[in-house]
Design brief:
This protein is mainly beta. 0% of the residues lie in helices and 30% in strands. It contains no helices and five strands. Strand 2 (38-40) and strand 3 (43-49) form a beta hairpin. It starts with 31 loop residues before the first strand and ends with a strand.
Length: 73
């Protein structure tokens, strides 16, 4: 929130449980991603591009943060 890369979260784990954290969901958005996801209001926004060198196939995809299902692209 302060644009300083510092989280104000508390009570975070100091080490992962055996086997790592539980995977909640994953999404194949296609193409190559080149940005960090932004999470706003229960939605995840990710910029990407199809694997095409002409630069005309860039896109943004919106996913549900609850289950990773595509809302729009």
């Amino acid at each position: 929130p302060n644009r300083d890369g510092v989280s104000a979260e508390t009570r975070l784990l100091t080490k992962w449980p055996e086997g790592g954290p539980k995977l909640l969901w994953q999404a194949d958005i296609g193409g190559v991603g080149y940005g960090s996801p932004a999470v706003v209001g229960g939605k995840v926004y990710i910029a990407g591009a199809t694997d095409n060198k002409d630069g005309k196939n860039e896109f943004v995809v919106c996913l549900s943060a609850a289950d990773g299902k595509k809302v729009w692209k």
